[in-house]
Amino acid sequence: MCNKLRLAYIFRLTLRGDEAKEDAFMKFKYRVSGYSLRPALLAVLGVVGLSTCGKSGSGRVDGKLYVVATTTMVGDMVARVGGDHVEVKGLMRPGVDPHLYEPVPGDGIALREADIVFYSGLFLEGQMHDKLEGLGEKSHAVTEATGKEELLVPNASGGHPDPHVWGDASLWARCVPGVAEALAKADPAHAVEYRANAAAYIAELETLHEWALKRAGELPEGARVLITSHDAFNYFGRAYGFEVIGLQGISTVGESGLADRVKMVDLIKERGVKAIFVESSVSHAAIESISKDSGARIGGELFSDALGQPGDMEDAGGESYDKGTYVGMLKHNMNAAVEALK
């Protein structure tokens, strides 16, 4: 987004008495730390910024929809469906835990300026839930496309569905049409392209699902025990035949206690589990401690709540894939699990 418009937007808000004032001033402090400007001067600069910046008040950037996505998985989906007609702003970076993510000052501005907002939903973005729902019609939870009968509700979740639906490529594919339709409504001129992109991406995800089933089948059923930091892989386990055991529940908000760790060590020894896994968006300390006490090795780092770095390529099974994409992330996770548990 144009720097002048960003400043203009903030400056205008300093002259208002609305609820966005505090957020705007904090954003300004992030960008102009150490300077003190009078409100009158800010207003003048704001007028200049508005008259010279290329981004219109509708939120479009060079004719593209300005789209905000919360998590990296959602951002990847939106980018695939939107193609060249959208500019996607991701709020969370690779390695960020969405359960614990607290909005930074710039997030509020990005959400207000966006033409359309996509988030995962099912309370994955716990700290942002109310703000996202409060955006009205321009805000869309991609998991709304899943049926209640398809969602998992763990016993210790207090009745809340498990939000990690992307673990199952076939279930994640069902979220794609909703993205296409929301983009088509916001930008009817490119509706045909959005729907065509969605169809192509769904086909790719269906192929990925079949590949994952075949790859998991290389492990004996008794060896398909996936022990991780928290219960982020229940849908992965249901889809591909793994027993999933997480040290924590479906959220990382709480911490595991000593009793939980002792119980996990005993289980690993009793079951003869060869390897356990750390997660990219969760501290490795607890799993590394359990590995040391149980004798099970660390089988690798899995991507649970965030994708890898864009452009981080991995070669496995005669192919190369980008761990910064959803497809590459799932392939990495499956390959790591199968190879470590053989």
Domain module tally: 3
Mean pLDDT: 83
Radius of gyration: 22 Å
**What is the helix tally?**
13
User: How are strands sequenced across the largest beta sheet?
Assistant: 2-1-3-4
Question: In CATH terms, what is the architecture of the largest domain?
Answer: 3-Layer(aba) Sandwich
**SSE string, helix = H, strand = E?**
HHHEHEHEHEHHHEHEHEHEEEH
β-strand number: 10
Shape: globular
Helix content: 40-55%
- List unreliable stretches of 5+ residues: 1-57, 250-254
Q: Determine the CATH superfamily of the largest domain.
A: Nitrogenase molybdenum iron protein domain
Q: What is the CATH top level name of the largest domain?
A: Alpha Beta
Kindly, what is the distance between the CA atoms of the first and last residues, rounded to a whole number of angstroms? 49 Å
CATH level-3 fold name of the largest domain? Rossmann fold
Q: Could you give a short account of the major beta sheet? A: 4 strands, parallel
Find the structural class using helix and strand composition. alpha/beta
Indicate the proportion of strand residues.
5-15%
In short:
This protein is an alpha/beta fold and 342 residues long. The chain is 44% helix and 14% strand. It is globular, with a radius of gyration of 22 Å.
